[in-house]
Amino acid sequence: MKKIKKRVLTEQQKKLDVNLWIIALVTMTIYCIYGVIGNQLMNYCRDSSISVWLRLLAAAGMEFGMAGLGITLVCILRKASFKSFGLKKGNAGRAVLGTILCFLPYIAYIVLSGQFEGYEPLSIMLTPDLQRAGITTVIAGTLIVAVVWGFFEGFNYAVIAEFISERYPLNSKLFDWGAFVCTLMGIMFHPIHFDFPGMVDLATTFVALYGMLMIRKYTKNSWGCVFAFLFIWNAI
């Protein structure tokens, strides 16, 4: 009986596997912690008798743990700069424009379905409390929101997608494992309803995220992903 040859992984493939495992384990650990203390954390963040800074840092710490800590640890381990993952000037305009086009169906759905309540970039649950605390707190607090809920959320998708694409490369121009898996990740954290509006929501969300990541792949620029989470995803 003919023996099946065991596939030998290259050193690069082994490194990519380790990178992905680190990100997955860190993310799932923080997510499990959130699953246990999530309600208490939300109540804590809503308690206006507590310093807005303490509440903001608690929320930002949890958010960064789920979308940022894993890729940051990998970059430190591999001594890789964020810039090496597409944070560069070249093709930045094309990446942002392409990403906006991919999000147009999603934006149209939000507006036409009556869910649009105003354009509020860099706004989270604590923003009203930050605004009441004074201009210095508004500026510093909004910067934290931009970094955690904007930059790291978008960049997290870009880095993970690149790792998966390198680990499982394809020659297809329309399908990419990294873009596909990360899109499914995004949809998992997005409310899903199985009526007609819910299916439209699901379809437009898929187009937005998958398109954003394919634009990143072909432009080799991650600023489109960051732009989407700074000025679209968390703003409408």
Write the layout of secondary structure elements.
Layout: H1 11-46, H2 52-66, H3 69-78, H4 92-112, H5 127-132, H6 135-167, H7 177-188, H8 196-219, H9 223-231
What does this 3D model show about the protein?
Helix content is 70%, strand content 0%. The chain is built from nine helices and no strands. By secondary structure, the protein is mainly alpha-helical. The model has no long low-confidence stretch (mean pLDDT 93). α1 packs antiparallel against α2.
What does the radius of gyration come to?
Answer: 19 Å
Write down the overall geometry: globular
The CA-CA distance between the termini, in Å, is 61 Å
Task: Classify the beta-strand content into a percent band.
Answer: under 5%
Average of the residue pLDDT scores: 93
The count of β-strands is: 0
In N-to-C order, the SSE pattern is: HHHHHHHHH
The unreliable regions are none
Secondary structural class: mainly alpha
As a percent range, the share of helical residues equals over 70%
Number of helices: 9
Q: Largest sheet, described in full?
A: none
Oligomer: single chain
